[in-house]
């Protein structure tokens, strides 16, 4: 079987602060801007820095703190702030990809307790792997789907061949396309998932992929993962895709 099997340091993992779980009250390290170390770049309150807790053995982990506020998220940002966050993320993703040090660089966001995240403060992560087989990370077909909106060459769609199953929204763009429609499509998509898609959804991920100049962004709602997938690799194509696409069009465009 062809997979990327990577070593994970469980001793580092156990020392990480947790601010997402109610019965743990670790102070938020990203609110404490004065004590941040390893800062690489800033744009006002947006900060790109080295991750203190490198759990992925052999890889370099970075964090992009999206702003000074702890309790907010992407849909509430002004469009200008959202564009600046995204610009910072794409700039450093591209820089690390082109730097020659890494075979592949992951860019993703965890939000909420079911997302795999531990810190509530809105942030994204970049992870550079000196060795990683990029062709095993995704198949572009998982990012294609029913078109919801297209603008300046940037497309928002809902997966017809999802990675897992339900409510996977995708943005298809490229490094040389305008960033503004991408920013708006992510704000709309995340807002839809968190407010209209499923009762009480608490969590989602953003996953960024690339093939040469093309960028694929998946907005993945997170809840208990289907046993059909976890146990047997079976994916579902839900029969409500057209209804969701129509609803997003009606609500946001
Ligand atoms: Zn915070």
Protein architecture, described:
- The longest helix has 20 residues, at 79-98.
- It contains 5 helices and 10 strands; from the N terminus they run H-E-E-E-H-E-E-E-E-E-H-E-E-H-H.
- Strand 6 and strand 7 (154-159) form a beta hairpin.
- It has a 10-stranded antiparallel β-sheet, with helices on one face.
- It folds into 2 domains: 10-135, HIT family, subunit A; 138-252, HIT family, subunit A.
- It has helices spanning 10-13, 79-98, 180-197, 227-232, 241-252, and strands at residues 39-43, 46-50, 60-65, 104-111, 123-129, 145-151, 154-159, 169-174, 203-211, 214-222.
- Helix 2 (79-98) crosses helix 3.
- It is globular and about 50 Å long.
- The protein has 253 residues and is α+β, with helices and mostly antiparallel strands.
- The structure holds zinc ion.
List the helices and strands and how they pair.
Blueprint (H helix, E strand, L loop, with lengths): L9 H4 L25 E5 L2 E5 L9 E6 L13 H20 L5 E8 L11 E7 L15 E7 L2 E6 L9 E6 L5 H18 L5 E9 L2 E9 L4 H6 L8 H12 L1
Antiparallel strand pairs: 1-2, 2-3, 3-5, 4-5, 4-9, 6-7, 7-8, 8-10, 9-10
What descriptors fit this protein?
253 residues; alpha+beta; HIT family, subunit A; 10-stranded antiparallel β-sheet; binds zinc ion
- Using only C-alpha atoms, the radius of gyration works out to 18 Å
Overall geometry comes to globular
Order of helices and strands: HEEEHEEEEEHEEHH
> Regions with pLDDT < 50 over 5+ consecutive residues?
none
Q: What's the CATH architecture of the largest domain?
A: 2-Layer Sandwich
Largest sheet: 10 strands, antiparallel
Count of folded domains: 2
Number of H- or I-type helical stretches = 5
Structural class: alpha+beta
């Amino acid at each position: 079987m062809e997979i990327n099997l990577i070593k994970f340091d469980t001793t580092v993992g156990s020392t990480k602060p947790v601010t997402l779980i109610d019965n743990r009250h670790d102070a938020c390290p990203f609110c404490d801007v004065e004590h941040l170390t390893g800062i690489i770049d800033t744009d006002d309150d947006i900060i790109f820095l080295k991750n203190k807790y490198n759990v992925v053995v052999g890889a370099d982990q970075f964090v992009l703190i999206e702003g000074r506020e702890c309790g907010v998220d992407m849909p509430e940002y002004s469009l200008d702030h959202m564009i600046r966050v995204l610009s910072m993320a794409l700039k450093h993703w591209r820089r690390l990809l082109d730097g020659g040090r890494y075979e592949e660089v992951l860019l993703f966001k965890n939000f909420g307790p079911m997302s795999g995240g531990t810190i509530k403060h809105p942030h994204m992560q970049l992870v550079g792997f000196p060795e990683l087989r990029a062709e095993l990370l995704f198949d572009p077909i998982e990012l294609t789907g029913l078109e919801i909106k297209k603008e300046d060459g940037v497309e928002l769609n809902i997966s017809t061949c999802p990675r897992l199953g339900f409510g996977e929204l995708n943005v298809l763009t490229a490094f040389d396309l305008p960033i503004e429609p991408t920013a708006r499509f992510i704000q709309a998509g995340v807002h839809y998932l968190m407010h209209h898609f499923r009762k009480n959804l608490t969590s989602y991920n953003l996953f960024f992929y690339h093939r040469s100049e093309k960028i694929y962004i998946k907005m993945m709602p997170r809840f208990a993962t289907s046993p059909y997938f976890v146990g047997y690799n079976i994916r579902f194509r839900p029969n409500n895709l057209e209804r969701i696409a129509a609803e997003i069009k009606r609500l946001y465009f």
